[in-house]
Design goal:
Layout: E1 7-9, H1 32-36, E2 52-58, H2 60-65, H3 69-72, E3 79-92, E4 101-117, H4 127-136, E5 140-148, H5 159-164, H6 171-187, E6 197-203, H7 207-224, H8 229-234, H9 248-258, H10 267-277
Antiparallel strand pairs: 1-6, 2-3, 3-4, 4-5, 4-6
Length: 281
């Protein structure tokens, strides 16, 4: 479930209609294209913020959505994934104010993703702790990175970081990143050589997003109560937030995956729905 006002890193890849691929499955509506089409940057030159560091703890699904599917694939257990952005950012408002996206974020700079095995959840809470976990906890780390919108001329800036990859993510990596962020600030000041791309989206309180979450939870509870799909679609919904409506397409899709389009949920299917309902932290 997406938190109100949350920022999520994305890869910037789009489909033939100009919609961000990472968000295609988010909205079940005839307005999908209008809501999820990425607006262009205003003006003819980059007007981004000072280059800064952002750190996110993610999972394999998030890494896959931003283009790191092969890096995220592993059969190991106790794996944590992190995303480190060293980016100059500029926000662009959506063209459709009634959609789930409140801001599109373009960026230039560098993005790195880290995979750690054997680190504690506490160690992944920050860049510094994660680097220290290699020594303190015996964690095994690896990372990959890409430049964003700065092209070949910036390769000299990241030479040292490339050499650090063979050692994994540790204190030496932090030192390399600290040096890069200073150099990126000077490099991105020359806006003529930049090619910004979408690196993140910020979600609004949009009723469209809340309607999907509400439909998912409502459908799971109907399955737990052994109701058929037809009964679930006809059931009365109470106490929804103002402006939020249940997305019945979500309920239908949920039944198709767990129960099927017809028939009453079995005890095993009801148990599956219960597990999904209580799978959060």
């Amino acid at each position: 479930m997406i938190a109100t006002g949350s920022y999520v890193p994305v890869s910037g890849e789009r489909d033939a209609q100009g919609c961000l691929l990472a968000l295609r499955g988010l909205v079940s509506s005839t307005d999908t294209t209008r809501w999820l089409t990425v607006p262009p940057l205003p003006g003819s030159s980059w007007n981004g913020s000072e280059t800064k560091t952002d750190y996110f703890v993610g999972d394999a699904e998030l890494l896959t959505s931003i283009g790191y599917k092969s890096f995220a694939f592993t059969t190991a257990t106790n794996v944590f994934y992190s995303i480190i952005d060293l980016l100059s950012l500029q926000s662009v408002p959506p063209t459709a104010s009634d959609g789930p996206v409140s801001a599109w974020w373009y960026g230039v700079g560098l993005r790195a993703v880290v995979r750690s095995l054997g680190a504690s959840a506490k160690a992944t809470a920050s860049m510094d702790r994660l680097a220290a976990s290699v020594t303190a906890e015996g964690a095994t780390t690896s990372f990959v990175f890409e430049t964003v919108g700065i092209g070949l001329p910036a390769l000299a800036l990241v030479k040292g970081l490339g050499q650090q990859m063979s050692k994994g993510y540790d204190i030496g990596t932090l030192q390399q990143l600290a040096g890069i962020i200073t150099e990126l600030g000077a490099f991105t000041a020359n806006t003529a050589q930049l090619q910004p791309r979408v690196v993140g989206v910020e979600f609004s309180t949009g009723e469209q997003v809340q309607g999907i979450a509400a439909g998912y939870g409502f459908g799971l509870r109907r399955i737990q109560n052994h109701q058929t799909l037809d009964e679930a679609l006809k059931a009365q919904v109470n106490q929804l937030p103002s402006g939020v409506t249940i997305d019945k397409n979500v309920i239908s899709d949920l039944y198709t995956m767990i129960v099927g389009r017809t028939g009453q949920p079995s005890d095993q299917q009801a148990a599956t729905a219960y597990q999904l309902t209580h799978s959060g932290p």
